[in-house]
Amino acid sequence: MNIGEASSASGVSAKMIRYYEEIGLIRPMGRTGNNYRVYGQEEVHILRFIKRARNLGFSLEETETLLKLWQDKSRESSAVKEVATTHIGDLERRIAEMQGMVKTLKHLANCCGGDNRPNCPILDDLAGDGAVGDGVVGKKIRA
Amino acid sequence: MNIGEASSASGVSAKMIRYYEEIGLIRPMGRTGNNYRVYGQEEVHILRFIKRARNLGFSLEETETLLKLWQDKSRESSAVKEVATTHIGDLERRIAEMQGMVKTLKHLANCCGGDNRPNCPILDDLAGDGAVGDGVVGKKIRA
DNA sequence: GTGGAGCTTCCCATCATGGGAAGGTCAAGG
DNA sequence: CCTTGACCTTCCCATGATGGGAAGCTCCAC
């Protein structure tokens, strides 16, 4: 199987497969005489594992940890659970931040007529003349 | 006022102030004889506007739009409202995606004993042997 | 006059991904 | 046999927003 086939079989772009190899997330693949990478079912399986972990929002670093745990027969499932629960915490913190932003924005948008008059509470608030407060919704956009 | 003072008055790092100038988000500042940038209250005000928009999760591009609308006396507040509501939609989509991830992860973590036995439903699911489905929680991590 | 704090520009790193160029290779069809 | 097009290879660059740090200048206080 060439990289293109492995790509469509796993849902990971060829570009990313090469990148994952480059950063050591997956082992360098064997090559044919024409220097093409060769993949088998095993590799597709690994790539789909990675794809799913990424879909769940794990970083590549976390994915690497999970991948090693997956391939380690003697691993402790508590280690995996810890990675997962830490990640849940991260996600929930980011969700809460974003919900704060939405709440503030909705409040402002509700107060904003949206008509042709230049008065706009959204801009007034951003300019700091309003009373909604200075950055109360969260300091960091991304955790 | 030098850049350091403007930075602490606005909450925007000196590095970022220079960057905003470089990408044209703010006008190039006048310089003193020693080539130091000089800032006044007006500029601090603008920087705080930017800071607040960033805190609300607006991208720099959106912030630029808002900034122009803010400085345009003849703007229509409907334009501002549109930027805000679009942004609310973006945020809500991302929140929903993340909530899907959290739900799936919590389900998996609940099923995972977290003890020393190597059986782990989280890894089983990531490996694609489980029944939870293939990436149902959202294709893209970031919108 | 000296030390340290602050300013300048310039380059590099992050994280994950995509775009694209330049060149090799293979298969099919004229 | 030769062309065409699809595929592969490596290499460099870009994103978005931010930080780190080096090298060199200036300014102020002591």
Polypeptide structure, described:
The structure is a homodimer of 143-residue chains. Among the domains of chain A are: 3-57, Multidrug-efflux Transporter Regulator, Chain: A, Domain 2 (Orthogonal Bundle), CATH 1.10.1660; 93-126. Chain A has six helices and no strands. Chain A has helices spanning 3-10, 14-22, 41-55, 60-71, 77-111, 121-126. In chain A, helix 1 packs across helix 3 (41-55) and helix 3 (41-55) packs across helix 4 (60-71). The longest helix of chain A is centred in the middle third of the chain and has 35 residues, at 77-111. The interface between A and B is large, with 61 and 61 residues. The first copy, chain A, binds a DNA duplex (30 and 30 nucleotides) through residues 2-4, 13-16, 18-19, 34-37, 54, 59-61, 141-142.
